[in-house]
Design a protein that fits this description.
The complex is a heterodimer of chains A (440) and B (227). With 440 residues, chain A is α/β, with parallel strands linked by helices. Chain A has 15 helices and 16 strands. Chain B has an 11-stranded mixed β-sheet, covered by helices on one side. The longest helix of chain B has 14 residues. Classes of the chains: A alpha/beta (440), B alpha/beta (227).
């Protein structure tokens, strides 16, 4: 056996970097993949809660109430969304996902009383039919944009960007442009489809004000209007969104997922979710609309949420609700070790699979291949998602009770400390064991 | 329009919300006149009924946005995004239209008797557009389906990244956008163009027009397709 102890791998040119250089040299095309940022960035794991002790009084676990409901869109909509739990399902398109997967998201969300969201490509009957609360995305491409569906929606989300690719449009490669997907998007079947990166009929926050008013007029002021941004200049984006009339601001950090984007975009554009939430909360506070009752603008944050602890931390930093995408797909069965052999056949591994753009998903979720899609049972998938959502909620309640909170939204930055200087600076909470908040 | 039988809304005294709510009412029918628009945004948006609406003056952004079924006439100029995402019906602008006219529209007919500014027909998805004068730069950008007729000239970037829409231009084109090329006018195109011109009230000779469409070189992702 060769002794490798004297060999030293480069920290700069690590195995992933070398593999990418070789791949680029072989193909001449940049790498496209799904998922969100995979690099290590300051995240919720770098925060801890300060449980109750002498100066704080905890609530009894399992016994004393810790409510989880949230109202979204209270300031501008005749019919705000009232959700039982503050964990929503983020926008994912039919096209990126199979019809059955979209249906399962609706089933799971509805079972626990939360919302799901359409995506680029329009609204499917399966999704609308199985979703008690459905948010209709209004995207730059306007693929499948239809006023009849707008009226069927429970809320409208104007999408400016997403955390995986702030400033970038979408792409859906030809393998996934089936006859049905092509028909919904008014595109030729089988082409590699690009989605626009900016809206076709407005160009700035003043225009957005008029656009939001148009959407309100068309829907007779019934629906909450969300504005979703990829996390970058979050403080200013939030302020501008509120001034433009948004009822809800959605901030998606760089760990937020995508179905297909350039690897270089995913890993190098945008900021971590942890760094974005305090900026958004500050903007809302300065405008007097943060947790301000019916006159308030609600904040939804997403990007890398996995556990109830993450949910609790996001809410403690100032969000009213969270959105999950990647975690929801995993709950449905994406990256299931039961398909380990098949993942290996396509050059991946269960737990690593991110080639959502290829449409070869062994779990039958991120595909339009009828045979693969048939593997996925939307009823069973929906039940798994509902279980997962319940666990997230119960975990968050556990932490909230320990902090003495009778409602998840009572969690606050004062309940948190940070493990690293970076996370303390981003989250604007003290380094654990100190009163030091870097930069304050 | 028979103004004696039409219902009139005066926007100088009636809130826009009341006007649009009336036009959205169940079973709405007949003829309507909207006076005093003075550049108001979002007039007659989201109408979904076979009504006739005349707006007497200039309108702001998104007039007739997402129209379904209605015949809407704007006697003055129109701001950004007139008839955006229209699904069906007819919208006629007597004057000029600002940018993004009929953006993303899926169906129906938009006629602009004057000029249309930049991005006319951007991401159009099946609408027919006839412009009496010129269109600005990047018109029919990422145009997916439908027909755009320009009786005058077209600015730079016409049809950039176009999909399956068909463009007919009588005058000069500043510069064609990526993947947009001139194409042969076959008999079916002459017939199609003549029909569009007639629908808009024009009698031009289709032989004076050039057809443009997609070379379909950008339909598949390759390194040389990126910029």
């Amino acid at each position: 056996m060769t002794n490798t102890w004297g060999l030293r791998e480069s920290a700069t040119f690590d195995r992933a970097a070398i593999a990418e250089i070789r791949r680029a040299a072989d193909t001449g095309v940049y790498d496209i993949r799904g998922w969100g940022a995979k690099r290590s960035v300051p995240h919720f794991d770098d925060l801890l809660f300060l449980g109750a002790s002498m100066s704080r009084y905890p609530l009894e676990g399992y016994r004393e109430r810790c409510d989880t409901d949230v109202a979204l869109g209270t300031r501008g909509a005749r019919y705000p969304l009232h959700l039982d739990v503050p964990v929503t399902i983020a926008g994912m398109s039919f096209g990126a996902l199979s019809g059955a997967a979209k249906e399962a998201l609706g089933r799971g969300a509805s079972e626990v009383g939360t919302s799901t969201t359409t995506g680029d490509g329009g609204m499917t009957p399966e999704e609308r039919g199985q979703s008690k609360h459905l948010v209709y995305q209004y995207l730059p491409s306007r693929y499948g944009m239809n006023p009849d569906d707008l009226r069927k929606a429970d809320a409208v989300e104007v999408v400016l960007g997403q955390g995986a690719k702030p400033g970038g449009g979408g792409m859906l490669l030809g393998q996934k442009i089936s006859e049905r997907v092509a028909g919904m998007r008014t595109l030729p079947e089988g082409i590699d489809q690009r989605s626009a990166s900016r809206h076709p009929d407005w160009t700035g926050p003043d225009d957005l004000t008029i656009k939001i008013n148009e959407l309100r007029e068309i829907t007779d002021h019934e629906k909450p209007i969300y504005v979703k941004v990829g996390a970058s200049r979050t403080y200013y984006d939030t302020k501008l969104a509120v001034h433009a009339g948004a009822d809800v601001v959605v901030v998606d950090g760089m760990q937020g997922g995508t179905a297909a984007t350039q690897e270089v975009f995913i890993e190098h554009v945008g900021i971590p979710t942890l760094a974005a939430i305090p900026q958004a909360a500050q903007a809302l506070q300065e405008l007097g609309v943060h947790r301000a009752g019916e006159k308030g603008v609600q904040l939804i944050a997403s990007g890398g949420i996995r556990t109830g602890a993450d949910v609790a931390k996001v809410m403690a930093l100032g969000a009213d609700a969270v959105a999950i995408g990647t975690a929801a797909l995993i709950a449905l069965g994406d990256n299931d070790p039961a398909y380990a052999a098949e993942y290996e056949k396509i050059g991946s591994a269960a737990g690593c699979y991110d080639d959502f753009q290829d449409g070869c998903d062994p779990a039958g979720i991120t595909t339009q291949d009828p045979e693969l899609a048939a593997r996925f049972d939307p009823v069973a998938g929906g039940a798994r998602l509902a279980n997962y959502l319940r666990v997230l909620t119960m975990e968050a309640q556990t932490i909230a009770r320990a902090c003495g909170k009778a409602h998840l939204r009572h969690l606050e930055p004062e309940d948190l400390v940070a493990l690293t200087i970076e996370s303390a600076a981003m989250a604007r909470v003290p380094l654990a064991g100190t009163s030091w908040i870097p930069g304050s | 329009m028979d103004t004696l039988t039409a219902t009139t809304f005066d926007l100088t005294t009636t809130p826009l919300r009341d006007v649009n709510a009336a036009l959205h009412a169940d079973g709405v029918s007949g003829e309507y006149v909207v006076t005093g628009p003075s550049g108001t945004h979002n007039i007659a948006v989201g109408v979904n009924a076979p009504v006739k609406i005349t707006v007497d003056g200039h309108v702001g952004y998104y007039a007739a946005g997402m129209n379904q079924q209605a015949e809407i006439v704007i006697s003055g100029n129109a701001g950004t995004g007139v008839a955006e995402n229209m699904m069906s019906g007819t919208v006629v602008v007597a004057g000029n239209a600002s940018q993004s006219a009929a953006a993303t529209a899926h169906g129906g007919l938009l006629v602009v008797h004057g000029d249309a500014a930049a991005r006319c027909g951007i991401s159009m998805k099946g609408v027919d557009i006839v412009v009496g004068g010129d269109v600005g730069h990047n018109s029919a950008f990422m145009a997916q389906a439908g027909r755009l007729v320009v009786r005058g000239n077209a600015g730079d970037g016409l049809g950039d990244s176009i999909y399956e829409a068909r463009l007919y231009v009588r005058g000069d084109v500043g510069a064609l956008g990526a993947d947009c090329v001139a194409k042969e006018m076959r008999p079916e195109h002459v017939e199609e163009l003549a029909g569009l011109l007639k629908a808009a009230g024009y009698e031009d000779d289709p032989a004076e027009y050039t057809r443009y469409g997609s070379a379909r070189r950008l339909y598949h992702f390759r390194a040389h397709n990126t910029y």
